[in-house]
Queue: 2 jobs
Job 1
Amino acid sequence: MASIVFRYLTVLVFSLCLMFFSPPTLAAGSPPLLNSELNPQTQTMDLAIDSFLDSIPANYYPIRTPAALKKQLDDAKTTLVDVREVKEYQAGHIPGAINIPLRALSHNLAQIPPDRKVIVYCSTGYRSAMAVMALTLLGYENVLAFSPSFTGWQAAGEAIAKA
């Protein structure tokens, strides 16, 4: 399953590179065309990108404050996952979080119960967004991200645990 996630992410990155570094040349005054109309070879890529973007869960950043995260964590069936690197986690993390670095996420799914709410966070939000997408593509249905991430938790003066 990990290969599916990486394939989707690779297709997305490759497609974005094509869009930004190989812009189509259009005749003056003509309307823009779809990529698949410009180059039939990109039709499959267009479909893959559409599928990927359609799979983004609605409201995947609904936890916007440390207080809201604390309320979510009151539920014993919630798993909090820190997707930062091990050294970052060891330097300080949100109490109760388990550490599964983003790049090792698909190899550690046994630590993430599929029948529980899963909340992911990182330092600033970038890796947690990728983790939400990866877990969603792997079949997890109740994955949320804590958008202030660790930086926001720290700035709010909340307790920090150290490993």
Job 2
Amino acid sequence: MMKHGDDPIQREQAKAYIEGHMEEAVREDWEQLLLEDEESLTSYMEMLDELQEELPLLENSSAFTERVMGDWAKMAESSAAFEQVAVEEGGRRYRWYEKTIFHYAVAASLTLLIMSSGMFDKLHTGQMELMIPKKDSSPSFSEQVIQATSGWLDQLMGSRK
């Protein structure tokens, strides 16, 4: 039975990753695998321990650390600024002509322009007549709703007394 992290294929891939002999796409897949798969991470760590003697030494570790931390701070600041802009804009950066208020302003302006030019009057060429429905004895729908509501409220108030 193989110990955890003894898969020869994973060990070979871990060695290629450490030595930098992987293509870009394969390297990105391997990095994602290291984040997700514990067995792959174990193979990588074991191979890193085995190859420790073969790997080049870092000559000025304090300068390297300072450079990395400085780059990380710059990256964190720019990332925080970008996230703030994205949050203010609702998660997506919009151009000025993609905003809803711009579309409303254009629509309102065009409506006012067409109304003031009389374009809507020219759309209807016939005689404009106001049609008033004939009054019959039945009450309108709104009157029926009001009567039903007031009857319901009278019943409700009567049951409370």
